[in-house]
């Protein structure tokens, strides 16, 4: 149904046989090792393993988590290498995944099982929608990434039924607002700004033109309509547009203005605690993906040891210290520069 005008994607059996071929796997391995950013990733993983062993604190759990991280990131980068080598178009699969997430979110909302998140730090979490996932701040950023991708599909993909991507994206943005994830919504809005900038300054004026589905005037008309609908929907929720925006930012229905202390209250205490942990062991940290809290110490096993750190910069410092943070910066530098 959501197929290209020019050709259909290859059958799964043919594609999987190509992926599993020894020539492709060998070239994929050479492709990864030859990339400096992958070498930077391996350097960070090795450094994090050494710092975790040096701490002597839940070493086995830290190494298992690091192994899981290494396998996951390598699988992602390997998948990218395969897609580049085979020039495969997986737009249909990605849109199908987005549609499945949409239906699962709606179903969890209808069945009343999408509000079952329980926080150890927040007293009232009954209004936080986590949907088919464990945490609202997992659901929110994930939906933001999916929605941004669907916007790109609608604007650039050569598919006949792009309206399906647009419809799914609109619904998922509504679900994203229900999660009250400020990180997720902020990421989505920032992504839309980047897409608009690329549309006018990169795609339209670049030396290598990229296919677009709409002219500039059509793009502006659709963007304006989307903004009007979004503002009207927020205002329709009750209390007016400004009050609803302030309530979303403050995560409370009280107050008419943005309260910085209230806005940061759900993160400040945890960030301060993480920073205090870092100061106790500044060079090697406390161990990869482990925590010093009583709840973690009592419940952590090699099968399940969940932990939430909320803010990446201080989390890296706490877990792998200055030595590991340097290795992480090296990886980021090799990846983005």
Question: What is the approximate shape?
Answer: globular
State Rg: 23 Å
The helix content, as a percent range, equals 55-70%
Our estimate of the beta-strand percent is under 5%
Q: What do the pLDDT scores average to? A: 81
| Helix run count | 13
Largest sheet: none
Structural class designation:
mainly alpha
By DSSP, the count of extended strands is 0
Distance between the termini: 40 Å
- Along the chain, the helix and strand elements come as HHHHHHHHHHHHH
Instruction: Note poorly predicted spans.
Output: 4-16
List keywords for this structure.
0% strand; globular
Plain-language structure description:
By secondary structure, the chain is mainly alpha-helical. The chain is built from 13 helices and no strands. The protein has helices at residues 12-19, 22-33, 36-55, 59-86, 91-111, 136-156, 162-179, 182-203, 216-236, 241-250, 260-280, 294-299, 312-336. Helix 6 runs antiparallel to helix 7 and helix 6 packs parallel to helix 8. It is globular and about 60 Å long. Residues 4-16 have low confidence and may be disordered.
Question: Secondary structure elements and their pairing?
Answer:
Elements: H1 12-19, H2 22-33, H3 36-55, H4 59-86, H5 91-111, H6 136-156, H7 162-179, H8 182-203, H9 216-236, H10 241-250, H11 260-280, H12 294-299, H13 312-336
Helix pairs in contact: 2-4, 3-4, 3-13, 5-6, 5-7, 6-7, 6-8, 9-10, 11-13
């Amino acid at each position: 149904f959501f197929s290209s005008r020019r050709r259909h994607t290859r059958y799964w059996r043919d594609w999987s046989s190509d992926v599993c071929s020894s020539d492709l796997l060998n070239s994929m391995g050479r492709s990864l090792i030859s990339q400096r950013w992958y070498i930077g990733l391996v350097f960070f993983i090795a450094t994090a393993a050494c710092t975790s062993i040096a701490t002597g604190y839940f070493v086995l759990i830290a190494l298992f988590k690091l192994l899981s991280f290494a396998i996951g990131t390598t699988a992602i980068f390997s998948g990218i290498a395969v897609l580049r080598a085979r020039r495969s178009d997986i737009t249909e699969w990605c849109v199908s995944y987005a549609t499945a997430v949409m239906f699962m979110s709606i179903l969890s909302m209808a069945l009343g099982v999408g509000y079952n998140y329980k926080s150890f730090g927040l007293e009232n979490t009954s209004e936080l929608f986590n949907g088919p996932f464990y945490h609202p701040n997992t659901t929110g950023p994930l939906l933001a990434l999916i929605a941004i991708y669907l916007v790109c599909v609608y604007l650039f993909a050569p598919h006949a039924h792009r309206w399906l991507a647009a419809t799914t994206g609109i619904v998922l943005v509504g679900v994203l607002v229900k999660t009250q994830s400020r990180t997720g919504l902020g990421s989505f809005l920032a992504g839309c700004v980047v897409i608009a900038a690329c549309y006018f300054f990169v795609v339209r004026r670049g030396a290598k033109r990229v296919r677009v589905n709409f002219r500039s005037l059509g793009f502006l008309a659709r963007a304006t309509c989307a903004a009007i609908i979004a503002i009207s929907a927020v205002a329709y929720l009750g209390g007016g547009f400004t009050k609803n925006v302030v309530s979303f930012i403050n995560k409370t229905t009280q107050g008419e203005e943005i309260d910085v202390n209230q806005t940061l209250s759900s993160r400040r205490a945890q960030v301060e605690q993480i920073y205090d942990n870092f100061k106790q062991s500044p060079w090697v940290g406390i161990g990869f993906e482990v925590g010093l809290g009583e709840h973690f110490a009592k419940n952590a096993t090699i099968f399940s040891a969940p932990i939430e750190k909320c803010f990446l910069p201080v989390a890296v410092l706490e877990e792998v210290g200055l030595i590991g943070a340097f290795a992480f910066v090296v990886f980021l530098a090799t990846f983005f520069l």
